[in-house]
């Protein structure tokens, strides 16, 4: 059995199928980990959701910021703009089934050697705290009152971890870490103003995985979200959002004793 982590698909369904052909994926024997952002921007979000859902236990996806945006949009009136990337999902006959499946996806997933998030892990969290924080939000998303969370999750504050955070403030901070973070200052304060590649940011900021005294994990971290970073491998971290949507590549990372990258070129969107 082989295990592959897949970078941000964002509705690029045709490219996903080509990548799975390239790795020789067998849904009966192999397993896929998706780093989130299954939907939005690309042309086939509906087909992407349906396909990954159909894989059942052969695939795990963590939630990305675009996936959460879809959940929030599903709580509002459906858009009638046929050009909007998410409209095809919101108007689909199986929309409720797909939305219910999506909101039951985790924010954090792991096995013995690897763990996966969409964006990042704040430098103050160790493995156990990361797992606990993910479970807090997952419980809220899977509860009957989940719409309350989706309405309150938007915002950039609070921007630094404190064990005293409670309620909506704690939930929003957790979501922002798992689904939006790229840069921090040396104290671990989140910054959402810069999303370019390392080197383009002010010298007071650094990628979250380079913050001094970051808590060490005994597992290697796989993440996506940061297309301008491209493929990244260092600090026991692997960034695999290689910008398929922007005409870059869609990447699969074979996870095992030897980690191997397989990428396909994507069409310009």
Percent in strands = 15-25%
CATH class: Alpha Beta
CATH fold call:
Purple Acid Phosphatase, chain A, domain 2
Q: Low-confidence parts lasting 5 or more residues at pLDDT below 50?
A: none
Order of helices and strands: EHEHEHHHEEHHHEEEEEEEE
Instruction: Count helical runs.
Output: 8
Q: Could you state the oligomeric state of the chains shown?
A: single chain
Radius of gyration computed on alpha carbons: 18 Å
Instruction: Report the biggest beta sheet as strand number plus sense, adding barrel if it closes.
Output: 5 strands, mixed
Shape: globular
Average pLDDT over all residues = 95
How many E strands?
A: 13
Strand adjacency order, main sheet:
3-2-1-12-13
**Structural class, from helix and strand content?**
alpha/beta
Give the end-to-end Cα distance, rounded to a whole number of Å.
34 Å
Helicity range of the residues?
A: 25-40%
- The CATH homologous superfamily is named Metallo-dependent phosphatases
Please give the CATH architecture: 4-Layer Sandwich
Number of domains: 1
Would you mind describing this structure in some detail?
With 269 residues, the chain is of the alpha/beta class. The chain has one domain: Metallo-dependent phosphatases (Purple Acid Phosphatase, chain A, domain 2), CATH 3.60.21.10. Helix content is 30%, strand content 16%. The strands form three sheets. It has a five-stranded mixed β-sheet, with helices on one face. A five-stranded mixed β-sheet has the order 4-5-9-11-10, with no helix packed on it. Helix 2 links the parallel strand 2 (31-34) and strand 3 (59-61). Helix 6 packs across helix 8 (167-179).
């Amino acid at each position: 059995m082989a295990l592959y982590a897949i970078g941000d698909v964002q509705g690029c369904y045709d490219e996903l199928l080509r990548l799975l052909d390239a790795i020789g994926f067998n849904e009966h024997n192999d397993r896929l980990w998706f780093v989130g952002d299954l939907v939005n921007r690309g042309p086939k979000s509906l087909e992407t959701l349906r396909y990954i859902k159909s894989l059942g236990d052969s695939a795990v996806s963590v939630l990305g910021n675009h996936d959460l945006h879809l959940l929030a949009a599903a709580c509002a009136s459906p858009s009638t703009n046929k050009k909007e990337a998410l409209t095809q999902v919101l108007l689909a006959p199986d929309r409720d089934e797909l939305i219910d499946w999506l909101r039951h996806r985790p924010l954090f997933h792991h096995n013995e050697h690897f763990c996966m998030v969409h964006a990042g892990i704040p430098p103050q969290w160790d493995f156990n705290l990361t797992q606990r924080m993910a479970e807090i939000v997952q419980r809220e998303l899977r509860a009957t009152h989940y719409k309350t969370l989706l309405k309150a999750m938007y915002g950039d504050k609070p921007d630094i971890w404190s064990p005293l955070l409670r309620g909506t403030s704690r939930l929003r901070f957790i979501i922002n870490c798992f689904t939006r973070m790229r840069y921090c200052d040396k104290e671990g304060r989140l910054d959402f103003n810069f999303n370019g590649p390392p080197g383009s940011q002010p010298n007071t900021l650094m990628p979250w995985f380079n913050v001094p005294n970051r808590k060490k994990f005994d597992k290697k971290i796989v993440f996506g979200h940061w297309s301008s970073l491209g493929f990244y491998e260092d600090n026991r971290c692997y960034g695999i959002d290689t910008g398929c949507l922007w005409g870059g590549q869609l990447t699969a990372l074979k996870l095992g004793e030897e980690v191997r990258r397989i990428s396909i070129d994507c069409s310009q969107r």
